[in-house]
Amino acid sequence: MKVVLSLLVFYVVFQHYPAQAQQEARLCMDNYPPFTYFIGDKPAGAMVDALEIIAEEMQFKLKYTPNTPFIRCMRMAEAGLVDFVVSLLRTPERLNYLAMFPYSTPEPSRFIVQTQMLGNLKEEKDILPLRVGLIKGFLYPKFFSGNDLHIESSSTPEAGIRKLRANQIDVLALNETVALHILQHEKNKHETPEKPIALLDFFISWEEDSNVIGLSKKSKLITREEEIAGIIETMRIDGTFTKLIELHKKNQ
Prior knowledge:
The protein is of the alpha/beta class. The chain contains 9 helices and 12 strands. Strand 2 (37-39) and strand 3 (42-44) form a beta hairpin.
């Protein structure tokens, strides 16, 4: 009788207390297609797919924030409120609170302007006297810090476009993929905008560095840093990141 009772107690305890709960991690997301974006409330994007591959390989569950401005994502990662941030560049300050894993070379910066400005802007020097819109928390090539530019900051690319249409800035600088996405979205609209926008022909390249995935040093996953680095490096070498980015570009 005692043996039966002991087995029954063991069964009840085992059913209510699994041996080990699956580890969870949070990705802080902003609207940054094709890398991170939302279809309704559902997270999507090349970096969402990439992190799902990593999560499956490492057997942890990936969760997501709602649409959160990039600069706030960085603060949350620094505080340990989220585990992953994506599509960023290295700086000494960020290395203080993030482990960083390179996955691709950074894209050039492109300029969006109101169409009426196209004929006046042919090369980099034409930008120097203008009001230039940048996005808070984003990094830009040295051209933007090495010249005495009149900078106006916005919290998101969409906010930057609104400033451009309101004549609060003359040009908006974005990475190439995001700039092209915004223009394609504009083209897909049924209504004709009052102030059409277009892309300048020239661009500003990076001299070095790479795009990275960041892992908060306060994350529980930091103990598996080497494992994460190995998986990301394998994905970089076999072209997984490039394929995912191209796939989501086509789906925009």
